[in-house]
Amino acid sequence: MIEPTAKSPLTVTYRRDEDPACGAAPVVIRFGGSSGVEPRAGRLEIRVGLEPLGDGSGWVECWSLPEGAAGETGVEGALTYLRSDDCLVGCWAAPMDANDDPDPVTERAYREILAACGALGFKYLVRVWNYLPAINHAVGGQERYRGFCSGRARVFEALPAYERILPAATAIGTHSDGLLIYFIATREAAARIENPRQVSAYRYPRQYGPRSPSFARASLWQSGPQAAELFISGTASIVGHESRHVGDLGAQIDESLRNIGVLLEEAATHHPVRADAPRELSALKVYLRRAADTPAAAAHLRARLGHDVPWLLLHGDICREELLVEIEGLYSERLTETLEIP
Ligand code: 3EB
To answer: Which residue in 26, 139, 158, 246 has the most C-beta neighbors within 10 A?
Structure first.
């Protein structure tokens, strides 16, 4: 662990559920069962309706604030939140089943989220996780992911220069009911990072749906004078705008890791990273469409990443039907200089 992370406004660790530190963490995220959120005294307990795979059961994602910082919780309609001096963590949850059209409820969710972020003084969404049931099923002749994208795009695309404020994101299909969107918002804008190997998602051609997905490939949040958190969006085996290696799990993992590698390089060219304090990977999440791929995926990841990288394997549907795997990451960075946000 790099020492200054203790002062990061938000530190993410994976811990065993029985670890007492989980009970003390201001935000805990558990996996399995059905999606939802519960505010506790000064804390947020989020449940993502995705089953953990492999050795993942019993692991909990814990977010901590700097020592001495207190979180204040609140509820506004469908939004439950926790705020500290530096950031706002919010969770918007609503009933949804596989027969509901995600478009209108997603639009409402994003309107309410952005309104609440503005009202609470954290105008900028840096990272959003979206989980909805049956993401590849069709309702009214359209894949549900596309309806989700339309509802979300109507909100973002109405904002001025919206490309510059899009958050890094994940959108994954659950096998349980409920729409769950949780996010981190900040007072200052984060830097957006795109992947030169990929068409920006917000510019995908129409063949992928009537409205493009509203997200940035990564966002870099200046979290201290020389510290930043780099949020890598869900990253798949896509080059240009096309899916690659259809049917080949290992090759899809490698292509996804290559895309993440390029995002890390991009981040480093825009924002010099200190050579004596390399970035530290604090958390990786791997979503697998087929639970049966777990042993092969785990072996492949182990071969590529070794034993030091903490990752969590989850059973979820990727928003392109032909893709088997998607990977997201969070890196803590030490910078040589303060970020300049365009
Ligand atoms: C992709 O690159 C894969 O719609 O929020 C990854 C991360 C994907 C986020 C989203 C979609 C989203 O297009 C899918």
So the answer is: 26
Is the CB–ligand 1 distance for residue 169 below 6 Å?
Answer: yes
d(CA 44, CA 89): 9
DSSP state of 305: H
In testing the pocket of ligand 1, which one of 127, 183, 215 has its CB within 8 Å of the most ligand atoms? 215
pLDDT digits over 100-110, tens only? 999 999 999 99
Asked whether 48 and 315 are in contact (CB, 8 A), the reply is no
Residue 149 CA: nearest ligand 1 atom is 4
234 CA from centroid of ligand 1 (Å): 6
> 3 C-alpha vs ligand 1 centroid, how far in Å?
33
DSSP 134-196: STTSEETTEEHHHHHHHHHHHHHTTSTTGGGGPPEEEEEEESSS-EEEEEEEESSPPEEE--T
Q: Which residues are catalytically annotated?
A: 326
Task: Say if ligand 1 is within 6 A of residue 260 CB.
Answer: no
Classify burial at 140, counting beta carbons within 10 Å of its beta carbon; exposed 0-12, middle 13-18, buried 19 or more.
exposed
Q: Is 46 in the pocket of ligand 1 (CB under 6 A)?
A: no
Do residues 43 and 25 lie in contact, with contact meaning Cβ atoms separated by under 8 Å? Answer: yes
**Stated pTM of the model:** 0.95
Query: Residues 241, 21: contact at Cβ < 8 Å?
Result: no
Point out the ligand 1 atom lying closest to the alpha carbon of residue 233: 7
Tens digits of per-residue pLDDT, 272-329?
Answer: 666 666 677 778 999 999 999 999 999 999 999 988 888 999 999 999 999 999 999 9
